[in-house]
Write a structure and sequence with these properties.
10 helices; about 0% strand; mainly alpha; Hypothetical protein af1432; about 65% helix; globular
Length: about 230
């Protein structure tokens, strides 16, 4: 029999965040492979957000951190998802696309603050890469720099995000082999280097007891990637 509580800490705000995340990322799918060797079904991106939030909760996260996990890609990917849904990018003049994306990002940020609070928004911002920077290697370097000074709450969400991504890559490598790395614009070596550097940052900024078992878990999967 399942246990019950009279005071659940995931309440209406969490449910609202789940619906908001589902709406933002409705058409987005995970970029790597598919559900399995014999499946043509794309994996909805929402599955990643759910997995990260679940890991945050299971690691002792509070409701704000669980909500931020659901929304951790809202500022980074949400504007592009909304723009593609609202209008074909081909219908916009190329030079106007960055302007439209910036407007949508501002709208999403304001929505997060209004509906879920400044604490959640701060965590989401810490987890976000700046897509206005076209060079992906530069974005990754800036992300690692931000990780070094991130709050405990932000680092909790960030490591759960990286664990799920890395474990998904490791699973796909076992299914499909080295071809998996061709799905990543950074390529194999740069991708593995990024995860190795992220691991170093989490090791050196491990003031939150909740992160210790997560760092150990992340270390295991980074070793798997580096051996591939």
């Amino acid at each position: 029999m399942p246990r019950h509580t009279s005071n659940p800490f995931l309440g209406s705000r969490f449910r609202d965040a789940f619906l908001f995340a589902a709406s933002l990322h409705e058409t987005q799918v995970r970029k790597k492979t598919s559900a399995g060797k014999h499946s043509e079904q794309d994996v909805p991106y929402l599955s990643h957000l759910m997995a990260v939030s679940a890991l945050v909760v299971e690691s002792g996260g509070n409701e704000d951190e669980a909500i931020a996990a659901l929304l951790h890609d809202a500022l980074e990917d949400g504007p592009d998802c909304l723009l593609r849904r609202k209008t074909s990018c081909l219908e916009l003049e190329k030079q106007k696309i960055p302007e439209e994306l910036q407007k949508l990002q501002i709208e999403i940020r304001e929505t997060i603050i209004t509906r879920f609070g400044k604490t959640v928004c701060a965590i989401v911002e810490a987890c976000s890469e700046d897509k206005s920077i076209s060079e992906k290697s530069v974005r990754k370097r800036l992300y690692l720099d931000a990780l070094k000074t991130a709050s405990d709450s932000a680092r909790l969400v960030m490591i759960c995000d990286k664990i799920h991504n890395a474990e998904s890559i490791a699973l796909d490598l076992s299914r499909f082999g080295e071809s998996v790395w061709t799905k990543f614009s950074l390529g194999k070596d740069a991708s593995r280097n990024f995860y190795s550097h992220a691991l170093q940052c989490f090791r050196s900024q491990n003031s939150d007891d909740r992160l210790f078992p997560l760092v150990v878990r992340f270390e295991r999967v980074v070793d798997v990637l580096n051996q591939s």
